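tool=predict chain=A
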Amino acid sequence: QVQLVESGGGLVQPGASLRLSCVASRLTFSNYFMSWYRQAPGKERELVATITSGGSSTTYADSVKGRFTISRDNAKDTAYLQMNSLKPEDTAVYYCNAKSRYFSVDYWGKGTLVTVSS
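tool=predict ok
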């Protein structure tokens, strides 16, 4: 079945950078919009960033604009989230989501934990 596997999370200090990766398997990656969501302890899951299937357009939550960059490599079936100038409030489990361009179906990864603390 379809798998999305996130990696790259960890414990970092405020101001540091991390790059998350999401590798997809068993789907036609170029037919999917890719998004990153996050869920902090005690809070609802929120949309962080989205990239279109071809990578030509991106959108971001206001809280991460100018600090985070979403990208994708369709040849590698991989989406990325470059996170710079990390803040303690960025601490959350980050989830990868793939949403089909053509059908009402989407898939989720199991998440990777990002902790920003001094």
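The mean pLDDT is 97. Residues 37 and 47 are 4 Å apart (CA to CA).
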